């Protein structure tokens, strides 16, 4: 079984300005948050697609208080599946 401490989960970020999507993506892909936000703002001025993608991701990505909470959730789920299989 994989080490659950090393699991990287894509969620909405903790440091939010609007919905936390840019922050979550930056954390997941190890990018700079403000750089991703600026790229989003600049591309949104010329195209509508980034705004649509942002809204879809805002609705689709789970909001957890922290990545640690998600890791605990995954650990409980893995242990539950393991006990059900036994």
Proportion of strand residues: under 5%
Please provide the ordered H/E string of secondary-structure elements.
HHHH
Query: Helicity, in percent?
Result: 55-70%
Number of helices: 4
Output the radius of gyration: 16 Å
The parts where pLDDT drops under 50 for at least 5 residues are none
Task: Kindly state the number of beta strands.
Answer: 0
Mean pLDDT: 79
Query: Outline, from the CA principal axes?
Result: elongated
The major β-sheet equals:
none
* Termini Cα gap: 15 Å
What structural class should be given to the helix and strand makeup? mainly alpha
List the helices and strands and how they pair.
Layout: H1 21-29, H2 33-46, H3 49-60, H4 67-85
Molecular structure report:
The protein has 86 residues and is mainly α. Helix content is 63%, strand content 0%. It contains four helices and no strands. The protein has helices spanning 21-29, 33-46, 49-60, 67-85. The radius of gyration is 16 Å and the shape is elongated.
Summary?
With 86 residues, this protein is mainly alpha-helical. The protein has helices at residues 21-29, 33-46, 49-60, 67-85. The model has no long low-confidence stretch (mean pLDDT 79).
Essential attributes:
86 residues, mainly alpha, 4 helices
